[in-house]
Design goal:
The chain has 19 helices and no strands. With 433 residues, the protein is an all-alpha fold.
Amino acid sequence: MTQHDISHLAAVLFALFAAATTLGLLAQRIGQPSVVGELIAGILLGGSALGILNPADPVIHSLGQIGVMVLLFEIGLHTDVRALINVGGAALTVAVVGVALPFGFGYGVCAALGLSVVPSIVAGAALTATSISISARTLSDLGQLNTSEGQIVLGAAVIDDVIGLIILSVVAGIVGGISVSIGSIALTTGIAVGFIAIALVLGNLIIPPFFRFIDRVEQTGILGVAGLAFAFLLAWLAAAAGSATIIGAFAAGLILHRTPQRERIEAATTSVGHFFTPIFFASVGASVDLGVFRDPRALAIGGALLAVGVIGKVAAGYSPVWLRVRKLLIGVAMIPRGEVGLIFAQMGLASAALSPRLFSAVTFMVLGTTLITPPLLSYVARSEKRPPDHDDQPGDGGIDDLVSGSFRRAPSLQFAAEESSAGTSTSPEARRP
């Protein structure tokens, strides 16, 4: 890289961080997550507007991919495997239905509009995940995170992230050329699940003693460097095994979640994430072709995906039929797609599985679900009264057992709730300025 290239990169990064930080803060001031501001910053700096940020630039692309791995590593650090197991049948039901319905609706809409199989699969997959950071932040701001509904949403969003990562790995294999069949999907799913399982078993045996040794080395910042190095190692191993790099980064976070050094690793990782993750979100925004939205067909696809994306998640909120809770509030809180949906869209664009028109339509859906959730959730929380729990007795498997048993035994969820009630968020995104 020449001196001219470096100076040009410095100018681009200055513009990117200045715009992303400013618009991220403005987004927070109006009740939106900072990722919305970062996306809008990318749109403004991209080729459709100012022409400053080129997402196809190899350096920008590489920095953005590092940002994705760091983000998923951070999410893994916040995810307790025991919480996933003990979170209760309600959260699991909401999560599974909240993945199946949007995927089916999204695939059906795209197929009905004449799209081929692979683009329809990628678009449907982008509808599956719920952004835990956006949901938790919004519920916390409304004082609803410590309610039964808030805890169900938090648990379901964590499970959604895990299911979404598996689906992402499957879709990555499909767009990479693997034929669409039950056998190939089962193989790719098996590799993803098997990699996480093997990594957790071996990692929990090997890694804690290693990090105890690292902790005794008196050198500033060494824990953070070691944690990131471990994440990149597992990302490489996951790719070598035929899975996605983010599966490895997420597995690294899961392994390190229960180590005594987690908070210091997390602090160092968050600092690194402040640099890399805005590059990813801004580059995603820069990939949006604003001219496409003058295309009636692109608007039709984006509007249809947005509609079925909302309907699918709201319907999932009603799936735990045995509970006396505010099911509409649960469903609305599951609507935002956030960063995982963007990762799906970017992967589809990079692999040519999504055309620029369809990529912009999917991004429109992600932005739309992210923007409408806070005001809609605020309205539902104010207007919908919480049903009485007098028919729900301890030991009958209802919400009392779910909260008193599962959630109080889930350290990461309890920790997240306590921090959120104190005005902070445990999500990587919410901590970014």
